[in-house]
Specification:
Length: about 300
């Protein structure tokens, strides 16, 4: 399915899991990530651990001069992402791609093409919804922003081609169907440099499915993601669409395209996808969003100037 690359080795904090995956692909298993990253048999690295574990492994890949694809979020804090940017710039070559896979989804790409063409005039507002059927027990209150809304934060920066300057969180009536510690649902409201208003409904215990919506309102028209079903059913219960179960179901094509484009770029010695700057910028917006979760009103977002290296 994916051409031009092969998984040759695996490392994981859970040695039994690593051994099982390595056996299934006939690859090597390493006792830790550092030895895998520095192996001469490894040309490039994909990091799929959780956010707090990323920084040392990304830095080790940069030190080894190896292209690295790191799952989102790049780091849990903007400071950590800034350290990664500094290390990458010191090495003089863009080696890091952050796994913001929605940029590879066909419908978001078509939406961006239409908005960029100018046919609908300037974009004024974007309405998003990000609904998960449920979330696991380890899902903490801040993850609504830095694990879930981070997808819209990155996708909206990319779609609009500008940064956000303020964040606010509206906290409606909570669902009784899941953990008390969560503000669920919530609405994250972001304002961009030019004044575009983005609202993002985050509802991670909606029960019924994985439901991703996005509608951009421009001066002369609107454009939205089409319904995400692949089949339509008509029967005695009526006419309905199948609802995606989870992010793998909804974004399967985007995940495949993302990894394929990365492998092809690595083979050409080029960089593709989101950069360390995108990881940093998303982390800064998340920090403001998390702050807005515990405070009323607007939280200002302030980013460092974009280094010329990432221009
Ligand atoms: C998860 O980590 C993801 O990346 C999913 O796309 C998102 O829908 C979910 O809320 C996150 O927890």
């Amino acid at each position: 399915m994916i051409a031009g690359g092969r998984v040759v080795a695996v490392a994981d904090a859970n040695a039994a899991n690593a051994a099982a995956v390595a056996a299934s692909i006939n690859g090597d298993v390493f006792p830790d990530s550092a030895s895998l990253i520095n192996s001469p048999d490894v040309d490039a690295v994909i990091i799929c651990s959780h956010g707090p574990a990323h920084e040392p492994d990304v830095l080790a890949c940069l030190a080894a001069g190896k292209p690295v694809f790191c799952e989102k979020p790049l780091t849990p804090t903007a400071d950590a992402a800034a350290r990664i940017m500094a290390a990458e710039e010191a090495g003089g070559r863009k080696l890091l791609t952050v796994g913001f896979m929605r940029r590879f989804d066909r419908s978001y790409r078509d939406m961006k093409d239409l908005l960029d063409s100018g046919e609908l005039g300037e974009t004024l507002m974007v309405h998003c919804a990000h609904r998960n059927p449920t979330v696991p027990d380890f899902y903490t209150w801040d993850m609504a922003i830095n694990d879930t809304a981070i997808h819209e934060i990155d996708t909206m920066r990319w779609l609009l081609g500008e940064e956000f300057v303020s964040a606010r969180v509206d906290k409606p009536k909570k669902t009784s169907l899941r953990f008390e510690h969560l503000q669920d649902p919530l609405v994250l409201i972001l304002t961009s440099e030019s004044g575009v208003r983005v609202d993002d409904e985050i509802f991670v215990n909606c029960q019924f499915g994985y439901d991703i919506r996005c509608e951009a309102v421009a001066e002369k028209g609107t454009v939205s993601l089409a319904d995400q079903n692949v089949i339509a059913v008509r029967d005695a219960h009526g006419a309905r669409n199948r609802i995606a179960r989870d992010h793998n179901d909804r974004f399967y094509g985007a995940f495949v395209t993302e990894v394929q484009e990365w492998i092809s770029a690595v083979a050409r010695g080029e960089h593709t996808g989101s950069s360390a700057w995108d990881g940093y910028a998303a982390a800064v917006v998340c920090d403001a969003g998390v702050k807005a979760l515990t405070e009323d009103g607007e939280v200002a977002i302030s980013m460092m100037a974009k280094p010329a290296f990432y221009a």
